[in-house]
Specification:
Helix content is 26%, strand content 22%. It is built from 14 helices and 22 strands. It has helices at residues 4-21, 171-174, 236-248, 253-256, 272-282, 314-321, 329-339, 361-366, 371-383, 388-395, 399-410, 432-438, 445-457, 481-498; strands spanning 52-53, 65-66, 81-85, 88-90, 104-108, 124-125, 132-133, 176-179, 184-188, 201-204, 207-210, 215-220, 229-233, 259-264, 289-305, 342-360, 419-427, 460-468, 512-516, 519-523, 528-529, 535-536.
Length: 556
């Protein structure tokens, strides 16, 4: 029988190995929720059939298991509280019992130790937020404190800005903390509504923006041409390895916890978009399919944060000030849960439009088609203007062949021949109209123009540089900053081990396990369902043991 400490060490080794191997992390897809009975259609036009349970029985339930309680910390002299915590040893799975109780405890205590938590303020101390601001910012019409106390009891307001100005696009997400283990935005850590009295207008596309104090630069980019980079993959393995690599390239932070270069910021696989993408593509993992992946990236702005003397968001400021000085993982873990693991220092804003054509290998051979033909016709279809014949002649493929391919793409929901599926991923430029068109057919020049216009005003963060949250803890804002910073760094290392999906048992039929809080779920390929993806509606009961996704869970 392994002790709790031995299990925790085993988990640490397993999760670090999982990270080193690059645990599956896919970019998200915009679109409808996955239909587990679906076998081909983008818009759910398939006939449902009676589910068939796999020869393998449903796995036995796994109950959630927590460690024993840690020892109580000493009484914190500033908070007048003491703390203890527990951590996740094994998540629940397959309808096992949940850990639906608190994983930390706090109680009041008494101590004679002195509290020296105040940082000297040479300016005005804000009433509620505790922020220290320069007295020249009082009564200037801006909410510099975050609680309006700097604008209270003013005989006269001397407004610095005489005109209304807009906030930069996506500035809210840029000010948020991010959890790089789940690719999610969390609570605000920087105050990008603080201007330090500055009021220099910044014009972008005839819109007047006010530059926040924390921002070093926000530079618009020329939209450029809407061009697709097309890549051919002869197997699902090649497709998954290369397409997934774009999203997992950021995993270099796993040991140093800092992203030194700009890396792509994918959508979390737990989201509806991520589930949809995995479900639609994974079902071709054991078929003789070929893949044509097309990708267009549109950059509309580059963002850079100041490197020092940042104004923190008052909610984050207060939470860090309330942390105990003696390390207690439970309290520091809650900070990471609420505000993320990192903050963004640089970013590229814009959009990504990509689609994947999944082709039936046998049907292609019977029709004397190659992936080069499909690639040429798909790209040519985007370029068509007047003379169709000349376009296809230049591409080295007959007009009839291209016409047949394009018609099959349009009619893929009505018949199954060469084109098995079209999976579309759109990030940036939210528009139901554009999204609905994207799922129906290959993109046209007109559709891309509409999408590009929408991206301009509603861009996504598509690339970023990030630093760990503990780098925001400085002596300017916090007493005992070095102690708190070291505690946050230690908590980040433990947090990485606790939230990794490699803690989950494997799913069947190439399903993907994900960890959500203290329970594991399986994202099933289209055509499979059940708690472990063990139920299928496919003819001949095609479910098999071969489809198990490997996991390090059994090593624990």
């Amino acid at each position: 029988m392994k002790t709790g400490a031995q299990v925790w060490r085993a988990l640490a080794k397993s999760c670090l190995l999982c990270a080193a191997l690059g645990c599956l992390h896919l970019p998200g897809a915009r679109g409808e929720k996955p239909d587990f009975f679906e076998t081909n259609a983008v818009n759910g036009s398939l006939v449902r059939s009676r589910p068939v349970r796999s020869v393998d029985v449903t796995p036995a339930p796994t109950d959630c298991q927590l460690s024993t309680w840690s020892s109580w910390t000493a009484c914190d002299p500033c908070q007048k509280k003491r703390y203890r915590h527990t951590y996740l040893l094994r998540p629940s799975q397959f309808y096992g019992e949940l850990c639906d109780f608190s994983d930390k405890e706090v109680e009041d205590c008494v101590t004679n130790r002195a509290c020296r938590s105040q940082v000297r303020c040479e300016g005005f101390v804000c009433a509620q937020t505790g922020r220290c601001v320069n007295r020249r910012l009082l009564c200037n019409g801006d909410n510099d404190c975050g609680d309006q106390s700097d604008e209270a009891n003013c005989r006269r307001i001397y407004k610095k800005c005489s005109q209304d100005m807009e906030q930069y696009w996506a500035i809210g997400n840029l000010a948020s903390g991010i959890n790089l283990f789940t690719n999610t935005f969390e609570g605000p850590v920087l105050d990008h509504r603080y201007y330090a009295g500055a009021c220099s207008p910044h014009y972008i596309l005839n819109t007047n923006f006010r530059k926040p104090y924390n921002v070093e630069s926000y530079t618009p980019q020329t939209q450029g041409k809407y061009e697709f980079a097309l890549t051919e993959y002869e197997s699902y393995f090649d497709f998954e390895h290369n397409v997934t690599e774009k999203a997992t390239s950021k995993s270099s932070f796993k040991f140093g916890f800092k992203l030194d270069g700009l890396v792509e910021f994918g959508v979390r696989k737990e989201s509806n978009e991520g589930r949809h993408y995995i479900s639609r593509t994974k079902r071709f993992s054991h078929t003789k399919s070929k893949f044509l992946h097309a990708r267009s990236v549109l950059e509309v702005a580059h963002y850079k944060l100041k490197s020092r003397q940042l104004m923190l968001h008052y909610e984050f400021l207060q939470r860090v000030k309330s942390l105990p000085l003696e390390y207690s993982y439970g309290e520091y873990r809650d900070l990471l849960r609420d505000f993320g693991t990192h903050f963004i220092t640089e970013a590229v804003l814009g959009g990504i439009y990509e689609y994947t054509l999944i082709m039936n290998k046998d049907a292609m051979e019977r029709g004397d088609y190659t992936l080069d033909h499909v690639s040429a016709c798909a790209g040519g279809g985007f370029q068509i203007g007047g003379n169709v014949y000349k376009v296809y002649l230049k591409l080295g493929v007959s007009e009839k062949k291209c016409s047949d391919i394009l018609n099959e793409i349009k009619d893929r929901n009505k018949r199954r021949t060469m084109v098995e599926d079209l999976v579309v991923l759109v990030r940036g430029g939210t528009s139901e109209y554009i999204t609905s068109l994207a799922y129906k057919d290959l993109p046209t020049a007109e559709l891309m123009k509409e999408w590009g216009d929408a991206v301009q005003y509603n861009p996504a963060i598509i690339k970023l540089k990030a630093e760990p949250l503990y780098e925001l803890v400085t002596a300017t804002d916090f007493a005992y900053s070095s102690t708190v910073k070291q505690n946050m760094k230690k908590a980040l290392e433990e947090f990485q081990m606790e939230v990794s999906s490699c803690r989950c048992a494997p799913c069947r039929n190439n399903g993907v396990p994900i960890l959500k809080e203290s329970r594991c779920e399986c994202i099933c390929p289209a055509g499979f369902q059940g708690v472990a993806c063990e139920v299928t509606n496919r003819k001949g009961n095609e479910s098999s043991r071969v489809g198990w996704v490997n996991s390090l869970w059994e090593n624990v």
